Amino acid sequence: MIMDDDLRPMERAALLTLLLAARSLSNTEMDEIAHFRLIGDDVTRLNKKGLVKSHTDIRPYVHTLTDGGREWCLRELTAGSPRSGDTALENALYTVLAAVRRHVDMQRLFPCSAKATQPAQAGVSDVESAIRSTYRKLVREPGGWVNLADLRASLDTVLRTDLDVALKRMIRQPDVVIIPEADQAALKRRDREAAVRIGGEEKHLLSIEGS
Length: 211
Known about the structure:
Layout: H1 9-21, E1 25-26, H2 27-34, H3 40-49, E2 52-55, E3 62-65, H4 67-79, H5 88-101, H6 106-109, H7 124-138, E4 146-147, H8 148-154, H9 160-170, E5 176-179, H10 189-194, E6 196-198, E7 201-203, E8 205-208
Antiparallel strand pairs: 1-3, 2-3, 4-8, 5-8, 6-7
């Protein structure tokens, strides 16, 4: 069993980054925010302990802080102290935290439950309805193509994993087509990050016939 004191610096950093973000983060987003990615054994350990739920069936991985992970973060912020073997920078961090605690109520700053700050998990049928409705708002002509990056931006309250599951189901429907961008060189970073992987291929554009 992995004890709290056995968490590695990278694992602790990932938990606190997810707490501060107050939402699920892809590895790309985590890299942009904190300049590291949660991969390999660190993912396995945090998931095994129940501190993080990671969706590794999509790329990039998407990580969500669990209620247990949130409780760990609050304990660390309110009562954490340096561990044997911590670096000078980590020791300095806890010194700063000790000073901050004298002026800030961490429990009030971060609600105890993660449910209040993370999007509610929606049913697949609800997400499909939202996708169709949003598609109709974004498309310029009936059956035209809508960029998945624009779709995701318009549905930012829906968890990425929920959106991916719905898209993968919808592609089996006769009126739905999801394809890769033909001109790969024209893809922007946001387009690549918004892609959904279906059949071993990254797809970027959605069309719904008759919409």
